[in-house]
Amino acid sequence: DTGVSQDPRHKITKRGQNVTFRCDPISEHNRLYWYRQTLGQGPEFLTYFQNEAQLEKSRLLSDRFSAERPKGSFSTLEIQRTEQGDSAMYLCASSLNQIQETQYFGPGTRLLVL
Amino acid sequence: AQTVTQSQPEMSVQEAETVTLSCTYDTSESDYYLFWYKQPPSRQMILVIRQEAYKQQNATENRFSVNFQKAAKSFSLKISDSQLGDAAMYFCAYRSGNTGTASKLTFGTGTRLQVTL
To answer: How many Cβ atoms sit within 10 Å of the Cβ of residue A90?
Structure first.
């Protein structure tokens, strides 16, 4: 069990650029979550996949954000036309499809938009 | 919508002492799960302890235990025999037990725990 991994760990970009983050869940986990954490706050839910299906999106996920999980394995989160307000830690978590599931978190990708 | 409140932004404890972190939540659901997660500086979030709402017995994991008061909607974390490695941000989180909804976690704003010698 290698845990949840995320790439890159840090990203600095200029306002208006597009960025893409990757999350690799624990191999047997079929649920995958994206959260956003700003400084001094707890993580906030963005979106959720069960296998390859995106089942829920938060209203925090504006139309500049898109997430995919092709083949139900890794997931990508893309932010188009980044804004300074997008600066945050983007966390990925995965879990088994069980009632008593526990979500396991990755190390996060810290985004800074200049 | 469910909300989670952590009213202590920072707490400090001496090594080997006991500290209690507070958490309250608001929900109209009867079936749910509560969690405490630990986020050390620049490291990933890890689960400390979980509690199922249908269980009356308070969860315990080694030096960590909870005081779950369902009627009061309170879920505090007690850390006994505090160690330097316990220094971290601690988040209380709620998850609905409704299998028809996403199993997203709703987090509080966190409590930063300092451990002093």
So the answer is: 23
Separation in Å, CA of B17 to nearest CA in chain A: 26
Question: Would you give per-residue pLDDT tens digits along chain A (114 residues)?
Answer: 579 999 999 999 999 999 999 999 999 899 999 999 998 899 999 999 999 999 888 988 889 999 999 988 999 999 999 999 999 999 999 998 776 678 999 999 999 999
Q: Please state, in angstroms and rounded to a whole number, the distance separating the CA atoms of residues B6 and B95.
A: 16
- Spell out which residues of chain A touch residue B109, defining contact as CB-CB under 8 Å: 40-42
Rounded to the nearest angstrom, the minimum Cα separation between B32 and chain A is 10
CA–CA distance, A2 with A24 (Å, rounded to integer): 10
Find which of B45, B51, B90, B112 to mutate to test the A interface (most A CBs within 10 Å of its CB). B45
B106 in Cβ contact with B94 (< 8 Å):
yes
Alpha-carbon span A47 to B101, nearest angstrom: 12
User: From the list A40, A99, A103, which residue is nearest B105 (CB)?
Assistant: A103
pLDDT tens column, B45-75 = 999 999 999 998 999 999 999 999 999 999 9
Cα of A98 to nearest chain B Cα, Å: 9
Written as one letter, the residue type at A110 is R
Quick check: A49 contacting B, CB < 8 Å? no
Nearest to B110 by CA among B89, B93, B95: B89
